[in-house]
Amino acid sequence: MEKAFKNEIKTRFPYLCNTKLLLAVSGGVDSVVLAHLCSVAKLDFALAHCNFNLRDEESDADEDFVADFAKKLKVKLFVENFDTEQYAKDNGLSIQMAARDLRYEWFEELRLKYQYDYTLTAHHANDSLETFFINLLRGAGLEGLSGINSDSNKIIRPLLNFSRKEIEAYAIENNISWREDSSNTSTKYLRNKIRHDIVPVFEELNPQFLETFLKTQSHLKENEELVEDYMSLLYPKIIEKTKYGYSMDIGYLKKVPNTSAVLYQLLKSFGFTEWNDVYNLLDAQPGKMVFSASHRLVKDREYLILTEKSQVEDKVYKIAEDEDFAMLPMGTFSFSEVKEIKEKASNCIYVDPEKLDYPLTVRKWQEGDLFYPFGMKGKKKLSDFFKDKKLSLPEKENSWLLCSGDKIVWVINQRADRRFSISSPDQKIIKITFSL
């Protein structure tokens, strides 16, 4: 296995040879063997051990074992104790998910603080097989069935091509001690149930099941990469980055083969779960929406618009009469007296100061708002004004108003209200400019 491991490093992870590595070690056979192999391969690494305090004295014994192991290898050791049960309770997580979050967050903190280049974990082929079944049960797409990534977000998993049997055999052959986690025998955890109850059935049907599975998973990975290549070609033709999110061309989407599959690939990373509702948006009435935990997808005429969930801004900001500059969350207002109107631009207006009632206010628009658009006759509802301008829902939601009392002075960067316009060239003129 030493030769195979060195070849794995040479062919798949050559960049590890000249870098500082942080190696996650629980004390179990997988991580202990990985540390031993890294030592034999003369890699530069330190150990990181998490004590989750879930098994009382057994957890402390694991920590002591890893401390002795680090001394034997003559490498640095980092140890962190966690109150995993309290963290799980506070965050509404299972114990396993809480432990996962805690360890990966800590590994990344260590890596950045002490300038390690990568974190190594001892995931192996059987872990990948068990993850496949877990994702299959949860209804994963192609990416969920194609295996654990060997290299992702500075996490390297160099043992994925080795089985649990190979690792244990190597440990026995080289007289390497390890710790057994008693919780690994309990089938109350899904992964353990798959390991002890499901995988053995497949192995009984096919003694080479793991090898067969790895070949199948390799094919799935190749197909996933093919899909990614295809999507990289489609992406710029379908999606346009906008000020508030992304806009997707419905017409082009409908022309491509397997429209639903393409839409899934475009949106899978945004947390949507009600995929039939997402697909139905293509033919829905404008204004129809589908939500994920973090994002919103809106049908807007010929486009689907993806934005983060909007936070309704109902705060009103005030600008006093003596303020020449007002820096507010949406941008900066500047007020200056000018002798004449020299330029016209969307980001500035000219008003009669005698018509202003201070303090001025800045707020988001609301249903029922109306104003007297400069250059037009009569009054107009803002909702109709936005409709005429064909503003998208995000553009409407992010429209701000400068107001004097209960009157709109300016639909900012869009149109001034003529009630505050200059009526005589001899009067005092105030120029109001808005900048982001």
% residues in beta strands: 15-25%
The dominant shape is: elongated
Main beta-sheet strand count, sense and barrel state: 6 strands, mixed
CATH fold name of the largest domain? Rossmann fold
What is the name of the CATH class of the largest domain?
Answer: Alpha Beta
Rounded to the nearest angstrom, the radius of gyration is 31 Å
Helix content: 25-40%
How many structural units, i.e. domains?
3
Kindly report the name of the CATH homologous superfamily of the largest domain. HUPs
The number of helical runs is 15
Q: Label the CATH architecture of the largest domain.
A: 3-Layer(aba) Sandwich
Category from helices, strands and their pairing = alpha+beta
In whole angstroms, the N-to-C terminal distance is 60 Å
- Residue stretches low in confidence (pLDDT < 50, at least 5 long) are none
Q: What's the mean pLDDT score?
A: 91
Main-sheet strand order equals: 3-2-1-4-6-5
What is the tally of beta strands?
22
Binding site for ATP: 26-31
EC number: 6.3.4.19
GO molecular function, one term: tRNA(Ile)-lysidine synthase activity
Subcellular location: Cytoplasm
